[in-house]
Amino acid sequence: MSAAQIANAAELVATKGGKHWPHKSPALSKAVENASKLTISPEHDEPMGSWSSEQIRDATSSSVMLTWAPGKARHSTPIITHGEGVYLFDDKGNKYLDWTSQAVCSNIGYTMPQSVLDATLQQMKNCAFVYGGLGIVEVRARLSKLMTELLPGDLQGMVFPSSGSEANEAAIMMARRYTGKYKVINWYRSYHGGTTNSQQATGDFRRWYGGDHVPGFVKAFSPFPLFWDYAGDDEAERTQMALNMLEELILNEGPDTIALLQFESVVGGGGVLVPPPGYMQGVRAMCDKYNILMHCDEVMVGFGRTGELFGFQNYEGVIPDIVTAAKGITSAALPLSMTAVRKHIMEAFEDKPIGWGSTYQGHPVAMACAYENVKYLIKNDIIGHVQRLAPVVDEQMKNLAENHPSIKQYRSIGLFGCFDVHNPDGSNPQLQHTAVDKAFVEYKKAYTANGLMGLLRPPHLHVAPPLVISEDELIDGFERQDKALDVLDEALGF
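Request: output the structure for the sequence above.
Response:
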């Protein structure tokens, strides 16, 4: 053995100790060029609105991703060129009546009030952005004061995130930090957002996409289960049974572990489910009894959709501890949401942060848009307009339900309605997490061919046009849907 071998062997002799093993991390073997060519192709200098349909399709195919729909759907999604009133127009010259306010958000349609346009542009000129923790702009103070004046009771602590999902994240964080507890109870068949906590709070299939493994969230059955009924001889008894079931859940989970009961005031995507008389009052009483915060998610129905400024105002005597809203706060013209809390919660954070934040919360330009949009809703009595049209919606939905055997039942409140579809044997034709059934594919084709545009969530068929729709336009929309339902009846075998 050579001298070098003897030396190496000596180094490998086992000794008592805790030294590291020799190791080299992998070296980069697949190096790629990562420098950008800082040039802009000439077509980007063409005026907005001048690209051909082929240019738009090519760019969409190569670079656009969808979110809640499979990516291949982008190849057939209409190219929208402009909107006017309650109508949208595509690149082929087709005119569509927006029958669901897109994602139940374009509340004042597509002819934006001049006051909204002017305020938004003026804020962008004056100061396009101020980070919320470094400065206060006037419009933030104004919008906060306006919402405090419009909300009932002492709901006066205002945070303005960018989306409904973010608003619910802020609500969850504040509830946990305020109470020192961590569990959140939500309904099945609910939707609260697509970020980590809000997605876990969601009670439908979209929760599964995140792995369904975030701790601290508990699901409860709403007053409207899919395949069974609560015991009771009448609605009042069934409502009491639903409340008893919720209370037993609270007791089994431990009231001292539950920070928040977080429910949609009216379940939106899950089928326009309006809690029966007495239910929300019972929830409020239960929260008071067990020292749990009550949160009403108004992302879809806030700002007039139900004929009240907020959905919870349909339930006499109920004021939640936390209210979140989005969509209608700007009528979807710019991304903004709101988390409003009662005074005692606001005061609890005087000497500590709420524990949530984002770069764009309290964005001045978006708040300017919201400020004028909300004023427009109030000054032009849009909510009164919804109340006047609500009986028309109910009558038209009743007529269609009676005339189409594929319709099992319907529900409506304000300018928000939903048909439930069933098979000839009375069974459910499709669960929401399954691929769209061919019968609904045929229905959607007829729906589009008759000049309607909107979300499709089988077995639920939503009705939620812009709040500014006229009675004639509303009746016209139902006549178009009537023709599409003829196709659905046949496709389902009636």
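Residues 443 and 488 are 5 Å apart (CA to CA).
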